[in-house]
TrEMBL record:
Residues 8-123 form the Gamma-glutamylcyclotransferase AIG2-like domain. This is Gamma-glutamylcyclotransferase family protein. GO terms for molecular function: gamma-glutamylaminecyclotransferase activity. It comes from the Eukaryota. The active site is at 86 (proton acceptor). GO terms for cellular component: cytosol. InterPro entries: AIG2-like_dom, GGACT, GGCT-like, GGCT-like_sf. Belongs to the gamma-glutamylcyclotransferase family.
């Protein structure tokens, strides 16, 4: 049986060269293929928060920047793994959005994006980014789950 394929837009630690990119291939029969670099067609606040320097895309359309990232075609198994990583739907919510290719083609693509909807309003006072790299000039290196000593979600979410 052939698995349904999905487009996913990633903007943070799942991008190529970032600490969580391996989640695309953690199981033998995972399928993923890089399609293109892209950016959102809506503005969003992309912040780096907690003492673990985690990137968060906050759901507040129209505020922030057009976010740059990568689009991958993935199978159901990869989508389920990413849902697990992003704790969808209890932490992040995965929704379909239009993203625009950043190449000569420049057309829009529908893709899943993980956004945070239930966040503390003070997070909107943090600096906004349009592109994320764990090794970026911001100097805020991402801490993997193995380097963490507590559940950071209480710093972010409204309960």
């Amino acid at each position: 049986m052939v698995s349904k394929l999905h487009n996913i837009f990633v903007y943070g630690t799942l991008k190529k060269g970032e600490p969580n990119h391996h989640w695309f291939s953690i199981e033998e029969d995972n399928y993923y293929k890089f399609l293109c670099k892209a950016q959102t067609t809506e503005r969003f606040p992309l912040i780096i928060a907690t003492k673990y320097n985690i990137p968060f895309l906050l759901y507040n359309p129209g505020m922030g920047n057009y976010i740059k990232g990568e689009v991958y075609k993935i199978n159901e198994k990869v989508l389920n793994n990413l849902d697990s990583l992003e704790k969808h739907p209890s932490f992040y919510v995965r929704e379909l959005y239009d993203v625009k290719r950043i190449d000569a083609n420049a057309q829009n693509i529908k893709a899943w994006i993980y956004v945070m909807k239930n966040f503390k309003p003070e997070l909107l006072h943090k600096p906004f980014f349009d592109d994320y790299s764990s090794e970026g000039a911001h100097g805020l290196k991402f801490a993997t789950k193995f380097e963490r000593d507590y559940d950071y979600r209480t710093e972010i979410l409204l309960f």
